[in-house]
Amino acid sequence: MSQRSKIALVVMLIVAAGFVLAPGCMAAKQFFAIATGGTGGTYYPLGGVLAQALTTKVPDVIVTAQSGNASTANLNLIRSHSIESAFVQNNTAYQAYNGTDQFEGNPVKNVRGIASLYPEVIQIVTRKEAGIKTVRDLKGKSVIPGDRGSGTAVDAENILKQAGLTFDDFGSLDWLGFSGISQRMQDNQADAGFITAGIPTSSVMELVSSTPVVILSLDDALIKKITGAYPFYAKVAIPANTYSGQDKPVDTVAVMAQWVCDAGVDEELIYTLTKALWEPGFHVLRKKDGKPEPAPAGAEIMAQAHAKGKDVTLETALSGMAIPLHPGAERYYREKGLIK
Which of 136, 178, 234, 309 matches a 20 to 30 Å C-alpha distance to 4? Predict the structure, then answer.
């Protein structure tokens, strides 16, 4: 966790303590955490916005967002009951629940789904000077496949496998989050990096502002192999001009970002949080003319705060949901008619 993230967490806890100890506040406050990702990705800002939105709408609950090492690490936290909920990739959640790939022999059987949020696009970013035209050109190059234990690293391994490569084919290999990838490439210390996140991604935007880069476009044959081997991937295109200097669409694949939780979390609490994600309500503290002040749905606030938040919709709440839903979330979706 970065120093800035630690400070932010301390501030949130101090504010939370104020809620708990405020005069006239008789009910005990319950803490509920969301593990997100590194500060250079999409999980971190969206998780913070969601945590704030839920805290303002759900009585007697303080929701906090914590930076983390993304999908695989977050699912390990769920397994050990070290955190109540987390943002993860749907493919990694599927592997965790079923005990495959990096979770072989050690499944995360207590993970449950709350909602699918938005598509996470796999972006293979390369320094233009490195002359990398295809995935196979990564052989012999200095590459960062993501942070150790992240879903991004799993995506990198899956794509490389279908291209006939492994991590051993790189000239050099390092494990860093998105901000670290951006910094290494700006410093000419890495030729390429894998970034799986909602677009536009802040770390990529920072990188292209100072360094000539190329985002690799995957050819149709490779995309067909990837989606055939891993059905949780879908072909997508990064629209032209998503990033400065990117004047053509980029063909690649994507997974879904999901909000998951520990199966042991109270059913009523998850039902209430799921409802607060999708429906407007009332502010727990603010009043106007003696009446509670209206508060937007969590998804609406996410849409206002981040470009990727606009993709968080009830219509796609169950898209790519390949693990069991938490009973609280399932009850909500049955009420809304999304589950028969």
Answer: 309
Please give the Cα distance from 290 to 285 (Å, whole number): 11
Q: CB neighbours of 168 closer than 8 A, spacing ≥ 6?
A: none
Asked if 144 and 176 count as a contact pair (C-beta separation under 8 A), the reply is yes
User: Residues 106-144: pLDDT tens digits?
Assistant: 999 999 999 999 988 999 999 999 999 999 999 999 999
Q: Phi first, then psi: give them for residue 234, nearest 5 degrees.
A: -135, 145
Neighbours of 81 (CB within 10 A): 12
**Is there a single domain that holds both residue 81 and residue 146?**
no
CA distances from 322 to 112, 133, 151, 159, 270 (A): 10, 34, 16, 20, 19
Query: Of 256, 291, 307, which residue sits at a domain end?
Result: 256
Question: Do 295 and 199 lie in a common domain?
Answer: no
In this predicted structure, the answer to whether residue 10 has a pLDDT above a threshold of 70 is no
User: Among residues 190, 225, 256, which one ends one of the domains?
Assistant: 256
340 belongs to a structural domain: no
**The domain spanning residue 11 has which CATH number?**
3.40.190.10
Domain region containing 184: 120-256
CA gap 64, 80 in Å, rounded: 19
pLDDT tens across 138-173, in order? 999 999 999 987 889 989 999 999 999 999 999 999
Supply the angle between the helices 71-79 and 151-162 in degrees, to the nearest 10. Answer: 120
